[in-house]
């Protein structure tokens, strides 16, 4: 859908002029009747565009529970949450946070400083505060940090009738009711069944008879990227989270996994681009420069190494100056090939496709790819230079250089991420600019090494 079409569609959902007029004239009834009919995402979209004075009216017009529904869909930068909460009265903000799903409230509180978190938890009701505190203790980017404790659990020795009674009573506060989890006397995960299972079976049927006892679950300390992979592979709407003794601690829902996938994709792309963070567009040039400079400084020193290598072959260039013409060609081909192999390797690691494949097979396959691409490009450039300059040996020298360069570049682009992954380092750190610069160095060494070795044939 085009941007103009999206804007037109959004206007059909949100009557901004009517809502703004209600805010400015302090017409609470008019505002609530229109605003509460909107989807919570549309509510958040409208709220995001308001200035502080207009937002103060919204806080006055909406209850903390209504504001919680909006806040769960509010898409703002992480550092903006503190400012938005500061606009609200502390009691109102704390009450709103307690009405949010616990995992969403934790996401917000993680963006605040410790003093602010303690302040809000102190004001909240004890049950909500305790639930949120338990989630705050889990390490960031793990299953525990993104799970919610608002799920429905029943016992195996119940009937369908009693299970439905529990489901009806707990449904308003549960994040999802499609899956119902079965626990034993010690609260260990024993089975799972769906809402459909409860509906289609007779009231007197025992839960133990219809539950599925081979439950797929994740450890509370599992990396969120691995959890996202499991959700994708199994097509689950929710995934139970357990501790090392299989006690059911919470569940992770598909909406949270979508956020994780977006976050991980953004993080990987940032690293591939040689940036610290691409989650937001920096309006401040100084802030943007701070994020980009670290990698650029590293690449600057690597570039100086490349320049010094070329300087070491100054004598070769003095004797055969035409060699300099092909430096960008060979370095560029090496960088491009390495980046292609890098992209395939990083994607394979991220999706898990390379996990079950033999590392020896990967090396052989990439070497084969390098040989085929190197041979094809080497022959092409040899013929082009021969017809262009009429010098077959010069063409062969450049062609052979490209042949070996593409093989090495392909292997480097695929093996470096695999080695980093083995060392528990994010393979995306082997970013495009990094691999490109490394391959520049390798290609220069190969090119001038061959040229120097066969110098006598070039100077005839």
From TrEMBL:
CDD domains for the chain: CBS_pair_Mg_transporter
Subcellular localization, as worded in the UniProt entry: Cell membrane; Membrane
Chain segments annotated as transmembrane: 293-313, 319-346, 367-389, 395-420
Top-level division of the source organism's lineage: Bacteria
SMART domains reported for this sequence: CBS, MgtE_N
Membrane topology label: Multi-pass membrane protein
Coiled-coil spans in chain: none
Domain CBS, residue spans: 147-209, 211-269
Pfam families hit by this protein: CBS (PF00571), MgtE (PF01769), MgtE_N (PF03448)
Key word Cell membrane present: yes
UniProt cross-references to InterPro entries, sorted A to Z: CBS_dom (IPR000644), CBS_dom_sf (IPR046342), Mg_transptr_MgtE_intracell_dom (IPR006668), MgtE_N_sf (IPR038076), MgtE_transporter (IPR006669), SLC41_membr_dom (IPR006667), SLC41_membr_dom_sf (IPR036739)
Keywords: CBS domain, Cell membrane, Magnesium, Membrane, Metal-binding, Transmembrane, Transmembrane helix, Transport
Major location (coarse): membrane
Keyword Manganese listed: no
Oligomer status and interactors: Homodimer.
Role description: Acts as a magnesium transporter.
Family assignment from sequence similarity: Belongs to the SLC41A transporter family.
PANTHER family: MAGNESIUM TRANSPORTER MGTE (PTHR43773:SF1)
Name under which the protein is recorded: Magnesium transporter MgtE
């Amino acid at each position: 859908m085009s941007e103009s079409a999206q804007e037109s569609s959004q206007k059909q959902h949100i009557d901004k002029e009517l809502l703004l007029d209600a805010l400015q004239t302090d017409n609470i009834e008019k505002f609530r009747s229109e605003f509460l009919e909107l989807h919570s995402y549309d509510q958040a979209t409208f709220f995001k565009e308001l200035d502080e004075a207009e937002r103060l009216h919204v806080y006055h017009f909406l209850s903390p529970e209504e504001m919680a529904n909006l806040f769960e869909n509010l898409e703002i930068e992480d550092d903006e949450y503190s400012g938005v909460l500061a606009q609200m009265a502390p009691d109102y903000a704390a009450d709103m946070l307690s009405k949010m799903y616990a995992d969403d409230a934790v996401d917000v509180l993680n963006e605040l400083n410790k003093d602010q978190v303690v302040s809000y938890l102190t004001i909240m009701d004890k049950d909500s505060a305790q639930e949120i505190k338990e989630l705050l203790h889990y390490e960031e980017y793990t299953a525990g940090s993104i799970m919610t404790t608002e799920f429905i659990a029943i016992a195996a020795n119940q009937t369908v009738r009693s299970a439905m009674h529990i489901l009806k009573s707990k449904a308003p506060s549960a994040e999802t009711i499609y899956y119902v989890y079965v626990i034993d006397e010690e609260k260990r995960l024993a089975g799972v069944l769906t809402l459909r299972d409860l509906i289609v079976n007779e009231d007197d049927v025992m839960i133990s008879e219809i539950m599925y006892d081979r439950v797929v679950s994740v450890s509370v300390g599992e990396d969120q990227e691995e959890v996202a992979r499991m959700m994708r592979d199994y097509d689950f709407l929710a995934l139970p989270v357990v501790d090392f003794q299989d006690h059911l601690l919470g569940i992770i829902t598909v909406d949270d996994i979508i956020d994780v996938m977006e976050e991980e994709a953004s993080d990987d792309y940032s690293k591939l681009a040689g940036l610290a963070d691409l989650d937001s567009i920096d309006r401040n040039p100084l802030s943007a420069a701070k994020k980009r400079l670290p990698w650029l400084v590293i690449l600057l020193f690597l570039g100086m190494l490349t320049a010094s290598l070329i300087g070491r072959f100054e004598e070769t260039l003095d004797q055969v100056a035409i060699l300099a013409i092909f430096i960008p060609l060979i370095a560029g081909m090496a960088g491009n090939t390495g980046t292609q192999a890098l992209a395939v390797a990083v994607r394979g690691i991220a999706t898990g496709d390379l996990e079950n494949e033999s590392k020896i097979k990967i090396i052989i396959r990439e070497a084969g790819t390098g040989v085929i691409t190197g041979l094809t490009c080497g022959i092409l450039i040899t013929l082009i230079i021969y017809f262009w300059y009429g010098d077959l040996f010069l063409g062969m020298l450049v062609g052979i250089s490209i042949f070996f360069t593409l093989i090495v570049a392909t292997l480097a682009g695929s093996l470096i991420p695999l080695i980093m992954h083995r060392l528990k380092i994010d393979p995306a750190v082997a970013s495009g600019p990094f691999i490109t610069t490394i391959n520049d160095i390798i290609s220069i060494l190969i090119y001038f090494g061959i040229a120097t070795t066969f110098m006598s044939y070039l100077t005839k």
